[in-house]
Amino acid sequence: MRKSLRTAVAVATLTTMLLGTVVTANAAVPTDTSGLREAVSADAIMDHLAELQKIADNNGDTRASGTPGYDASLDYIEDLLVSAGYEVTRQNFLFNSFRELSEPVFEQVAPNAVTYEPNVDFITAEYSGSGDVTALLQAVDLVLPPGEEASTSNSGCETEDFADFVAGNIALVQRGTCDFSVKAHNAFVAGAVGVIIFNEGQEGRTETLAATLGDAFSDPLPVIGTSFEIGNDLAALLGGGDVTIHLATETLIELDVATQNLIAETSTGRDNRVVMAGAHLDSVPAGPGIHDNGSGSATLLEVALQIADLGIEPRNKVRFAWWGAEEAGLVGSQFYVDSLTKAEAKDIELYLNFDMIGSPNYARFVYDGDGSAFGIKGPTGSGSIEEVFEDFFASQGLASEPTAFDGRSDYDAFITAGIPAGGLFTGAEDNKTADQVALYGGLSTFDDEAVAYDPCYHQACDSLDPIADGASAGLYQALNEAYEGALEYNGVISNLNTVALEEMSDAVAHAVLLYAMSTGSVSGTATASEQAMTTGSERQGAHFRR
Question: Which terminus in the chain has less CB density within 10 A, N or C?
Fold first, then answer.
């Protein structure tokens, strides 16, 4: 059921408002966001996701950019926004698409005969080339045991790492420091016929690795990601003698595929202090992407629709964006930012990013805008955005924790251009810790195995019926029980957590309206941060460091 509607925007005195209702965010006039938060509901968001699921069902079980499923997803969102009175445009661009044509193979031939299971023990790296090779395995500059901190390993990041590499071998490299595409390319140049990238080994970096090489990667060799356990075991075997591996991938990369971004903005508000909020709409080719990133796309849609339904007239123009080809390497959002003139970029006050905000085994992550947790800070003003989300969750009695600006989502182009950014995330393929279970509920282990925030990340089971689409029935039933039925939609366990959606959509609505009504600048200047446009940001690289 939808929540009852209340008055959306009200001016009130700080001393008379409930905690969390009024936040100033550099505004001279406080803003009550409770009406919009009440209007935006998880039920309505799930209804949008049901429509996206139908679209995937009718279009080859995918909504990847360049496919009819993506085009139909754009049509669905555009029709609703136009009916709500938004000014809607589509932005055309080209990208290189990727898909697998057959099931990949990863086998240990010697000294033991071991067959590894696709999408469980290993995952083909996005934009991997094709190949069917059986060859000796060779380790490349591994750090075992792993360092205490993430990205201690520099394995495969420098050409010198391959100084003793034997051409014709398969390279075993470890996650850390540089982009996966750099590791794979260095291996190819050194004569490798295949690459196995295993997770680094610290807490949260042990699970099977879903690596992205990016649509610019073109080296013709199979590249896969695997878990720390499997990589560590293979490294140990190499200490005792030769290890022979069989790798096979069959992939198709199509060049210059047409797709689109969808942009919608309010008809009112200052156009020199534009508040942007975005989410990528495309799925991976392997599945419907109902969580990644149907969750962010549907939430933004419902926030936009409720702003219109409530008759809210923002002081600052609000621009919503649904990005294409994010899964191809953040192509759509980068294309958009690259298309801006300097003046247009300067007019964007800030960018809010919402990518995966309904994880079935969720945590509440806020992007570390000031760099205090991870040392990677955004442009001036990003720390204020982080504080707005942290304060909101605290006002609701909810825990949250920071997540790094590590280049994995569409904020990347904005912070590189010097535009303040922030946003929310509830977790992907990394494993949930016992400490996080105490904060957020859920499971850290099941049947003595670690449990990810999203066990169906980048898989066919990222759907409204993950069990039917290949997920573990026992695990999903246990998650649903741990969250007292919060994974159910129309009586079926889904790959979404409605409690997470309710909490995160409240935070989305709060931040969007807060900045839409703000009379000040997030960066402390009279207009969008000119300082940010010149100083840029301290960031870690690109989307491909998965």
Answer: N
Distance of CA 462 to the CA centre of its chain: 13
Residues 139 and 81 in one domain: no
Tell me whether residue 254 is one of the annotated catalytic residues.
Answer: no
Q: Do residues 145 and 165 share a domain?
A: yes
Among 207, 326, 327, 503, the active-site one is 326
Tokens of 410: 């569409």
Q: Is residue 162 part of a domain?
A: yes
Using CA atoms, how far residue 104 sits from 115, 211, 212, 224, 461, in Å, is 11, 15, 16, 9, 18
CATH number of the domain where residue 122 is located = 3.50.30.30
Element (H, E) at 303: helix 294-309
CATH number at residue 381: 3.40.630.10
Mean pLDDT per segment of 10 residues, for the chain of length 546 residues?
A: 30 32 49 97 98 98 97 98 98 93 96 94 94 98 93 94 98 95 97 97 86 90 97 97 98 95 97 97 95 98 98 97 94 98 97 98 98 93 98 98 92 97 95 96 95 93 97 98 98 98 98 96 57 33 37
Considering the domain architecture, whether residues 318 and 335 belong to the same structural domain is answered as yes
Question: Which pTM does this prediction carry?
Answer: 0.84
197-242 confidence digits (pLDDT tens): 999 998 878 889 988 898 889 999 999 999 999 999 999 999 999 9
Domain count, the chain: 2
What is the structure's pLDDT at 492? 98
Contacts within 8 Å (CB) and 24+ apart, 52-60: 52/76, 52/288, 52/289, 52/290, 52/294, 52/297, 52/298, 53/288, 53/290, 53/294, 53/463, 53/464, 56/283, 56/287, 56/288, 56/289, 56/290, 56/463, 57/288
Residues 68, 92 share a domain: yes
> Is 8 among the domain residues?
no
Residue 424's identity, in one-letter code, is: L
Residue 307: domain span: 33-96+257-429+504-535
Q: Is residue 7 part of a domain?
A: no
Give pLDDT tens digits for 133-152.
999 999 999 999 999 888 89
